[in-house]
Specification:
single chain; about 325 residues; alpha+beta; six-stranded mixed β-sheet; 9 helices; 12 strands; about 35% helix; elongated
């Protein structure tokens, strides 16, 4: 009798603990969504949405183990709160009829000494345009010497925040976006004008500040503000490609606001953006990463397909988009 009573009390206590845990998780998840534009730590949660969904799934499965409707209801609440941010991901660009174009963007990682593995990737060597971040002089020289891409952007890497563009098409102009801004942490997007098949293509290379502190988070926000302003100044029918390491998660309202204010579209999946940045210190498991490298398109550019390249010595994966130009 006493043993049965003790088990009942333990079971009830477990259900209460489960309810508190699920309620706390759900509240934290939803509050982080609501405060992401005003609170640094809330926006950081957007980098962990897939991981939080995994945790929510674990809570749900654990709640079912109690075989009690109350525990199951709270577990369901946790699962729904983990799923909720995924329903608000921006829609991807659509397919269009046009001339094919392959764009690859990759953060090659400043401490990655050898570009040989990157150059040996077939999807990279087949690219029409490369948009690269964290370039070093050694990488710049090696890619130029490969002869695959006859045109390259300025060799002054420092002036372009260590970004580089290689192209099979002539580069007509190159300019820094909003160089007068003093609140972007010394980082600026770069706008390139290319001549593709007798028509102008605009390519923006981006690599804003990583939001590792509240100050750097504000600098990233200022960078995205300037970028959105520049994109809105482009003609609506102009083909524009924006590529790089955004240091911004797909679930972040800063990214979604940029898309909504410009009418541009991402190339990522609407339901499950694939991770592109991962930690070398934790076994380089790409599945544990987060999506921050991406390609964004103006309405005049169509999306045929998107793929992630393999690891090549960086802590980022290359993003390969097959596009169509009108």
């Amino acid at each position: 009798m006493l043993d049965t009573l003790s088990k009942s009390k333990l079971h009830t206590a477990g259900i209460v603990a489960m309810a508190v845990l699920c309620t706390g998780f759900s509240a934290a998840s939803l509050v982080s969504m609501a405060l992401a534009t005003t609170m640094w730590i809330a926006d950081l949660a957007n980098f962990l949405r897939p991981h939080l969904l995994f945790l929510a799934t674990c809570l749900f499965v654990l709640s079912l183990a109690f075989r009690h409707v109350v525990a199951a209801l709270f577990g369901t609440l946790a699962l729904l709160s983990g799923l909720f941010p995924f329903f608000f991901l921006p829609p991807p660009a659509s397919a269009q009829i046009g001339a094919p174009l392959t764009v690859v963007t990759a953060n090659v990682y400043v401490d990655n000494p050898d570009p040989a593995d990157f150059l040996s990737l077939p999807l990279v060597s087949a690219a029409d345009i490369l948009v690269l971040q964290e370039m070093t002089p050694r990488w710049q020289d090696a890619l130029a010497a490969s002869g695959v891409w006859p045109f390259e952007s300025s060799r002054d890497l420092h002036a372009n925040t260590d970004m580089k563009l290689f192209s099979r098409f002539p580069i007509l102009t190159e300019r820094t976006v909003s160089p007068e801004s003093a609140d972007t942490g010394g980082r600026f997007a770069v706008r390139y004008e290319l001549l593709v098949g007798g028509r102008t293509l605009i390519v923006y290379a981006v690599h804003p500040q990583t939001p590792r502190s509240p100050r750097m988070w504000r600098e990233r926000s200022a960078y995205l503000r300037d970028l959105a302003q520049a994109l809105r100044s482009e003609r609506h029918d102009t083909p524009v490609v924006v590529a790089g390491d955004w240091n911004t998660a797909s679930w972040s309202p800063f990214f979604k606001n940029l898309l909504s204010s410009t009418g541009y579209r991402t190339t990522e999946s609407r339901w499950w953006p694939l991770p592109t940045r991962f930690s070398i210190r934790f076994g380089s498991w790409t599945q544990l990463g987060t999506p921050i490298d991406r390609i964004v398109l103006s309405p005049a550019v169509g999306l045929d397909s998107l793929a992630m390249g393999p690891k090549f010595g960086s802590n980022h994966l290359p993003v390969i988009a097959r596009l169509t130009l009108p």
